[in-house]
Amino acid sequence: xxxxxxxxxxxxxxxxxxxFGLPSLSAQTQTPTYAYPTSxxxxxxxxxxxxxxxxxxxxxxxxxxSYTVNRNRIYLGYSTSTFDLAFTLRDNKLYIGDSYFTDAIxxxxxxxxxxxxxxNFPLDIAYTIVPDRNLPGVINIFRDNSISPFDIVTVLxxxxxxxELFALLLTMGLL
Length: 175
What we know:
Blueprint: H1 2-15, H2 25-28, E1 33-36, E2 48-51, E3 54-57, E4 65-70, E5 73-76, E6 85-90, E7 93-96, E8 105-110, E9 113-116, E10 125-131, E11 138-143, E12 152-157, H3 162-171
Antiparallel strand pairs: 1-2, 1-12, 2-3, 3-4, 4-5, 5-6, 6-7, 7-8, 8-9, 9-10, 10-11, 11-12
């Protein structure tokens, strides 16, 4: 009886991450995000995808690795070496390398818009991000400040965090 109770307690504390500030099981599992050219979401037309922090071209594990995302950093290829650090995301601003200077800010994410540089001026809007009204779990990315269906640049299926979003856009050559 005591053995079962101690096993149950250990499983609860360490298996699910409850207590002691450990991350929960749901925070450790991550769903992949796929990028498509249109809202048709055809599997064979996937441009790239991110799964477990690795951005690959195409729709499966055999695609070429473009970037690796680790927390708020984007690395070139399949690496997390500081020599391969391409971008760092701080305060929703994408810095080149590990720089802290404001002139190294490539893009800024503010609410549902991506701006060029360290700006929030309406003329500097590069993309507008809007969830699809008809398809749950799908995100439309529009050119500039538009929400016209004719201005969709890419469609994402999944729930990427801001760093993953930038890595996907970089892979597709949109940034």
